[in-house]
């Protein structure tokens, strides 16, 4: 889909890059020539991913264990990341989420999600942004949000609040830092099965199947589809796009929003009967 040097020697930091969609994006960035830095809390998971990546692209992945909820730790990570030269891009992908009735949430439960998604994303973006500004180096921030960042969603309320905040940050800083050559964009994925998300958000096989029925294109997303979109937004070739959120969800959220979407339950006979009605 792309020329093989699309991201040649770009230094890209992906938070939560050891698992799931972060890992898929990292793999694609490496294939397109990038140098990768991955962070997460679990060093063993990051090392396992690095070993997998090294088998194909030796020596091009750096592991930076970091808990994004800790602003000092994020500063230390950014210091280490920029020590060998400026980063070119930050992918805010790390997240925490779980399904719960909102009235059951304790303050710690609310904080658990907001601290990772909203605060961690802000810390990482500021740590990179201020270094880019000081060095007059261009920068690129890509944040992975969700479609309920703008629709809201029951049962994942702290996540919806946090993702909405990340989208507001994206649009705000795209304007504030645009003149300095820093772009910020977001991707809003629909369902892309990963262990992290499915263990926490899909309670049983019936709901997994029900999910597919609400997607106009009739299937969940493939990781490579999201990884290719990320690669495009990380590449210089998308250089005039900033402050944008690109949805990749097979039409899922629009179907939920459209007032007459439920009419897909009508049979051909029902449609004929509707047409035959007068008045
Ligand atoms: C109610 C819960 C809960 C649940 C945890 N808590 N799970 N409350 N229902 N299911 C409460 C705990 O009781 C505790 O409060 C507080 O939250 C903190 O819990 P810990 O386990 O101590 O938190 P921590 O170890 O910090 O873990 C954070 C986490 C966890 C968010 C809870 O799930 C995590 O580490 N997630 C990272 C990966 C992840 O979530 N990936 C999925 C992203 S998918 P008390 O008061 O009892 O102490 C995604 C996709 C969206 O965002 C769209 C999909 C289509
Ligand atoms: P995942 O595999 O669980 O990814 C979450 C990652 O975040 C993990 O690698 C985790 O590593 C890291 N992380 C969590 N807390 C952290 C912290 N405090 N500090 C540093 N790293 C932390 O889930 P995923 O499905 O790939 O999700 C990736 C992104 O896509 C998330 O932003 C999610 O909201 C978004 N998304 C996913 C879907 C989907 O269908 N999968 C849909 C919409 C949006 P550690 O646990 O080791 O820290």
Keywords:
single chain; 279 residues; alpha/beta; Rossmann fold; seven-stranded parallel sheet; 11 helices; 7 strands; globular; binds hexanoyl-coenzyme A; binds NADP nicotinamide-adenine-dinucleotide phosphate
Question: Can you characterise this structure?
Answer:
- The protein is of the alpha/beta class.
- It has one domain (about 10-279): Rossmann fold (3-Layer(aba) Sandwich), CATH 3.40.50.
- The protein is built from 11 helices and 7 strands.
- It has helices at about 20-30, 45-55, 70-85, 105-135, 150, 155-175, 195-200, 205-215, 225-235, 250-255, 270-275, and strands spanning about 10-15, 35-40, 60-65, 90, 140-145, 180-190, 245-250.
- Helix 4 (about 105-135) runs parallel beside helix 6.
- The mean pLDDT is about 95.
- Bound molecules: hexanoyl-coenzyme A and NADP nicotinamide-adenine-dinucleotide phosphate.
């Amino acid at each position: 889909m792309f020329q093989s040097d699309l991201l040649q020697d770009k230094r890209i930091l992906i938070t939560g890059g050891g698992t799931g969609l972060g890992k898929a994006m990292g793999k694609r960035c490496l294939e397109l020539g990038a140098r990768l830095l991955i962070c997460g809390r679990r060093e063993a998971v990051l090392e396992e991913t690095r070993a997998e990546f090294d088998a194909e692209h030796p020596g091009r992945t750096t592991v930076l264990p970091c808990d994004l909820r800790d602003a000092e730790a994020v500063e230390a990570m950014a210091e280490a990341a920029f020590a060998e030269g400026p980063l070119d891009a930050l992918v805010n992908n790390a997240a925490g989420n779980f399904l719960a009735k909102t009235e059951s949430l304790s303050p710690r439960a609310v904080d658990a999600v907001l601290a990772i998604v909203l605060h961690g994303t802000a810390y990482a973006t500021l740590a990179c942004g201020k270094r880019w500004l000081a060095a007059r180096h261009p920068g690129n921030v890509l944040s992975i949000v969700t479609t309920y960042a703008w629709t809201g969603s029951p049962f994942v309320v702290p996540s919806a609040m946090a993702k909405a905040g990340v989208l507001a940050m994206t649009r705000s800083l795209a304007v504030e830092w645009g003149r300095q050559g820093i772009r910020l964009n977001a991707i809003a994925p629909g369902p892309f099965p990963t262990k992290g998300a499915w263990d926490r958000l899909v309670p049983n096989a019936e709901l997994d199947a029900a999910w597919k029925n609400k997607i106009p294109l009739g299937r969940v997303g493939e990781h490579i589809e999201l990884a290719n979109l990320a690669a495009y937004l990380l590449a210089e070739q998308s250089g005039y796009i900033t402050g944008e959120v690109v949805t990749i969800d097979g039409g899922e959220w629009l179907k939920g929003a459209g007032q007459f979407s439920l009419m897909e339950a009508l049979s051909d006979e029902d449609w004929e009967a509707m047409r035959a009605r007068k008045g």
